[in-house]
TrEMBL record, chain A:
NCBIfam families linked: PRK07102.1
Protein name: SDR family oxidoreductase
SUPFAM superfamilies: NAD(P)-binding Rossmann-fold domains (SSF51735)
Acetylation listed as a keyword: no
Residues spanning the signal sequence: none
TrEMBL record, chain B:
Recorded GO MF terms: FAD binding; oxidoreductase activity
Protein name: FAD/FMN-containing dehydrogenase
Family membership: Belongs to the oxygen-dependent FAD-linked oxidoreductase family.
Species annotation: Rhodocyclus tenuis (Rhodospirillum tenue)
SUPFAM superfamilies, per the entry: FAD-binding/transporter-associated domain-like (SSF56176)
Pfam families (alphabetical): FAD_binding_4
Keyword match Oxidoreductase: yes
FAD-binding PCMH-type domain segment(s): 1-179
Highest classification ranks of the organism: Bacteria, Pseudomonadati, Pseudomonadota, Betaproteobacteria, Rhodocyclales
InterPro entries the UniProt entry points to: FAD-bd_PCMH (IPR016166), FAD-bd_PCMH-like_sf (IPR036318), FAD-bd_PCMH_sub2 (IPR016169), FAD-linked_Oxidoreductases_BP (IPR050432), Oxid_FAD_bind_N (IPR006094)
Gene3D superfamilies according to UniProt: 3.30.465.10
């Protein structure tokens, strides 16, 4: 049985991942903004076989609440083996371009709050010399694109931060894992037309559970995105600027 | 891609799709009618709402509670968007199974209630509605009504087999049954002619929990394989089937034609068949779930399923229908023959009634298919039978009205904001 903290636990990817952990009999501590949705998810995970499920309501952008939440999770779980940071929003690029406020708010949710949480959790894992911190980044963080670079900026920040944290934790025996999902069919992306590249939340969840078990460094999910992003990262700017990506 | 039913017949115009992911969410304030869309496994148009809104419920798929009572009975409470497959995945390893299951596990609990699905144990257990302890309905007036045999009992009866028309089924409490293993002991018997089927069936109903027959509807004289089964005792181990395969593409013309079907059916009939076998329950209950999207094999024009039930006293009607089908040269891979027992469902529009049920697939071939259906309809009507709305895309309103004597009583419970292509098509049978 693993002791697992999930922040952003009501996101579709986090919930699908939690179901897989619950089926294995792990103990879960769920954190999200909406108490009703948290309770519904907690009840579901109990029926699915979780050893225990506790919940805490928290807005991840309320940075002052992080330390108390982590204390509560440690006390509730009696330790920490895995932490998954999964909260996020998909900001509307056009709205961000028209508003500094929107841009910074999007970066606060998807970037700064993640960095703040990863700092606290990273320190804890380093101290206990064990455990995995998994953070959901995005393929959008691999290269700035006109269609979603504000979201990409925040996810890129998380990517670099996790690289550094991974480097630092390497000596301690703790692990920092960056998950980079491609297009996922979730409520967050409900307004997008879906094509062949789209994955279901449970496909991503399966990959997350495996990547945590295998203590991987970076997991593109599904795996073919590693190749796609390798190509996209290496397109020269001169050509890239002519695309509509 | 627009939501469609399992038969993949063309739909126009498409409905607007709104996804639900929380059972606490209210109904959307939209113009036009509403209808729940679960996993799209009903064949015809009971799950379609052209020009209106479909509330896609698959995102509402959370378990709520599981209780085992002192007497050993168990109740599972869950969202209506939970698949029967999810329930099996979670509960079969713990020794619990569905008390009634249809021929695919990829249906939602809400869909199982709304179509009051039945299984191969109807002669013992009745239909899904017989094992529904309660459900919560979200009505368009904003009210949430818990419906149970002793609470809003009339609405409960209307909702079972109510085709999603009595409001949105949000959650349900269903009974689960204990099983000692995931294995079944199966007895297979080849038969020739309907008399042999009825003799086998009478003996099997007395002795076995599950009974069903596959028949070769293209043979000159009906022949088939009768499959009776029971849950195996503890300690019996059977290997679970491998991962499902997917039909890779939709062929422009259906490869299922008179020649290939006749060849397939003959091969299936003559395949080596153990008289006694122990198998995992999945391939017995869900023979086609191993091929995802098998419905695409019927080609781009789509297909119909025709399922009727006629009273036992009208057994000759089955023979008449099989002759009509064989004569037409149209017919299906999976023709199924089974009898329904006397356990009555609470549902006002429930399909099962004591009698014999026959189910067949037919690729859409325009006028020829329509002519065959008209002939079959006449036989069903003369026998005092009825067709299954979950499979239907074309039955005349008059046949529906004649087959479902409680239709008018049912119609009083229909939520004024809810409708479906099926309902608009058949409610003409109601007195104005």
């Amino acid at each position: 049985m693993q002791k697992i903290l999930i922040i952003g636990a009501t996101s579709a990817i986090a919930e699908a991942t939690a179901r897989r952990w619950a089926a294995r009999g792990d103990a879960l501590f769920l954190v999200a903004r909406d108490a009703t949705r948290l309770d519904a998810s907690a009840a579901d995970l109990r029926v699915r076989g979780a050893a225990s499920v506790a919940c805490q309501v928290m807005d991840a952008t309320d940075l002052d609440a992080h330390a108390a939440m982590l204390d509560a999770a440690l006390a509730g779980l009696g330790g920490l083996d895995v932490a998954l940071i999964a909260h996020g929003t998909l900001p509307e690029q056009k709205a961000c371009e028209a508003s500094v406020e929107e841009t910074l708010a999007a970066i606060a949710v998807n970037g700064t709050s993640v960095v703040a949480l990863a700092t606290l959790i990273g320190n804890l894992l380093e101290q206990q010399k064990s455990g995995v911190l998994a953070v959901i980044g995005s393929v959008a963080g691999d290269r700035g694109r006109q269609s979603n670079y504000v979201y990409g900026t925040a996810k890129g920040m998380v990517d670099i931060f996790m690289q550094g944290l991974r480097h630092r934790l390497a000596k301690s025996g703790a692990q920092a894992l960056t998950i980079k999902p491609g297009f996922v069919d979730t409520p967050m992306t409900s307004n997008f037309p879906k094509g062949a590249l789209w994955a279901q939340p449970d496909d991503i969840a399966r990959g997350i559970v495996q990547a945590v078990d295998a203590r991987r460094d970076v997991a593109y999910l599904p795996g073919f995105w590693r190749l796609i992003m390798l190509v996209i990262r290496h397109i020269p700017e001169k050509i890239f600027k002519k695309t509509s990506l | 891609m627009a939501l469609n039913a399992w038969g993949r017949l063309p739909v126009a115009p498409a409905a607007r799709e709104l996804r639900r992911s929380e059972r606490a969410a209210p109904l959307p304030a939209v113009d036009g009618s509403l209808l729940a869309f679960g996993n799209g496994r009903s064949y015809g148009d009971v799950c379609l709402n052209s020009g209106g809104t479909l509330l896609a419920t698959r995102g509402c798929d959370r378990f709520i509670d599981f209780r085992v009572e002192a007497d050993g009975s168990a109740t599972l409470a869950c969202d209506a968007g939970v698949l029967l497959a999810d329930i099996i995945d979670v509960f079969l390893p713990r020794g619990w199974f569905l008390p009634v299951t249809p021929g695919t596990r990829f249906v939602t609990v809400g869909g199982a209630i709304a179509n009051d699905v039945h299984g191969k144990n109807h002669h013992r257990a009745g239909s899904f509605g017989n094992h529904l302890r309660a459900c919560e309905l979200l009505r368009s007036d904003g009210s949430r009504r818990r419906c149970a045999p002793d609470e809003n009992a009339e609405l409960f009866a209307a909702t079972i087999g109510g085709l999603g028309l009595t409001g949105l089924i949000v959650s349900a409490e269903i009974a689960l049954r204990r099983v000692d293993s995931a294995a079944l002991t199966v007895e297979n018997t080849r038969f020739h002619g309907l008399d042999e089927f009825f003799a086998l069936n009478a003996a099997a109903e007395a002795a076995h929990e599950y009974a069903v027959a596959w028949i070769d509807c293209l043979a000159r004289r009906p022949r088939g394989i009768f499959m009776a089964a029971d849950h195996a005792p503890a300690g019996c181990v059977a290997k679970a089937p491998g991962a499902a395969r997917r039909a890779p593409f939709t062929p422009p013309l259906s490869p299922l034609n008179k020649l290939t079907l006749a060849a397939f059916n003959a091969a299936y009939y003559h395949k080596p068949l153990p008289a006694h076998a122990t198998t995992h329950l999945l391939p017995y209950f869900y023979p086609l779930d191993g091929i995802l999207d098998w419905n695409r094999l019927y080609g781009k024009r789509g297909f119909y399923q025709y399922q009727c039930v006629v009273p036992r006293s009208a057994a000759s009607a089955i023979d008449e229908m099989l002759r009509a089908i064989a004569a037409s040269g149209q017919g299906s891979l999976l023709a199924v023959l089974k009898t329904f027992g006397n356990v009555a469902s609470p549902g006002l529009l429930s399909f099962p009634m004591p009698g014999i049920t026959l189910a067949l697939d037919f690729p859409e071939r325009g006028a020829a298919t329509a002519a065959l259906f008209a002939r079959l309809d006449a036989i069903v009507a003369a026998a005092g039978g009825r067709l299954y709305p979950a499979k239907d895309a074309r039955m005349p309103a008059a046949l529906f009205g004649a087959g479902y004597p409680r239709l008018e009583e049912f119609s009083r419970h229909v939520d004024p904001k809810f409708s479906s292509n099926f309902w608009r098509r058949v409610s003409a049978a109601l007195p104005a």
